[in-house]
Amino acid sequence: MKCRLYTDGACSGNPGPGAWACVLVRGGKVVNSEWGALPHTTNNVAELTALLCGLKALIEDEREVVVVTDSQNMIGWISLGWKRKDPKISALAAEIDKVIAEKSLMISFEHVKGHSGDRFNEMANQKRIAMEVSAMHIFQTADSTIVDNILTDIQSGDVLKVRTPGAITPIANEERNMQAFRAEEETYNSLADRVSFVNDVLSGQQLPSSTPATNAALANTNSKSVFKLKRQNFTIFLREFFNLFVIPQVIKEITPEHVIRFTGDVQDLQKIDDAHTNIIINNAIIEHVSNGGDVPTEDEIAQIKQEAMSEMKKLGGERFVSFVKDFYGDAEFEFDILIDEEQEPIATLAQNTFQLLTSVAQNPQLLENPVTKALIYDWAQKVGINPVKLEIAEAKGNQNPQQLQQISQLTNNVTPQNGQLQTRPQ
């Protein structure tokens, strides 16, 4: 289950007294938080301590973790292979690696600037500061003869002589605001429930046994609808960005003569193979006729096609196609993306496909009339059926008759003279 771990750590003086804190968020809800003080530490040690304690606190099903931190050094040591020269850093990083391996964690990092407005990161930072202050021992006195810092300026066993009885008194600086942090975390948890109405489903918690089946199904539907809306909004942004900026730039850069490598499934590669095979067949016919020969028979054409297809099958799962200069000069492109799932309702698409099949089967003449054919293709596109696939299928079905007709026209209009084709006037 995926979760986000916000970590922070620092000290005063570097080295000096410090603290660390981490906040674990799952499904938009704070599920755990840890913090602690370090009497003498460095900023980097405090940051790594926060990460280590956060990873140790993960439960068994929390395997995919996004660590949100403002420490570039921590990201480098844990995920980028930076050298760990400091012994303390090396020991902490090794322990973190061990926890990641033992729990089979998939760790990724997200770097944020310190105090960037991310509230979860700010809460971790505030808890860290609170523990850092509470770890200090601060005293007050009105006696000017007392040393400035009794923790560093005196040794164990020293006796302080003061002019005023009770002149040295400690300042109460223990942390008294953790309850406020917990209250704020509960507020975020409540908001997460209100946004989706289904926090139990989103966080992977077990629904109460008394929950009706209809309520559970409704909760599951609501959880999908909330995040499907987010995906759709992001998809709309991607479509506009690619259509307005990326595609025009790509066309501009590929205007010169170039070669494109195509990879895809069998159907995609088959389209390229069919187009290339038709070019080979047409070139063979033209060459045969221009040399004074007869038009190849249907069996000879089938033999040429079979040989061409066999050669292309040897290329495996990729094709290399050469394009001439300005090939895309009059082409129009449109980018689409399907991560939002809004265009792939399987049940609806199956029903629409069956309706189209029934209509064409009952009245095949619909595809022979140009007007009704255009209307059918337009309707097919609107219900989610790609009309290009229909065109390709129809072309395959009529390939041989059309090819023979084109060959007949070619022999009537073309005669070989001195090895070159001459076109007869109509």
Would you give an account of this structure?
The structure is a single chain. The chain has 426 residues and is an alpha+beta fold. 50% of the residues lie in helices and 16% in strands. The chain has helices spanning 43-56, 72-79, 87-102, 119-134, 178-196, 199-202, 213-253, 266-290, 298-313, 346-362, 370-382, 387-397, 399-413; strands at residues 2-11, 16-26, 29-41, 64-69, 106-111, 139-140, 169-170, 258-263, 318-323, 414-417, 420-423. A 5-stranded mixed β-sheet has the order 3-2-1-4-5, with helices on both faces. A two-stranded antiparallel ribbon has the order 6-7. Strands 8-9 form a two-stranded antiparallel sheet. A hairpin with a 2-residue loop joins strand 2 and strand 3.
Provide the descriptors you would attach to this structure in a database record.
426 residues, alpha+beta, two-stranded antiparallel ribbon, 13 helices, 50% helix, elongated
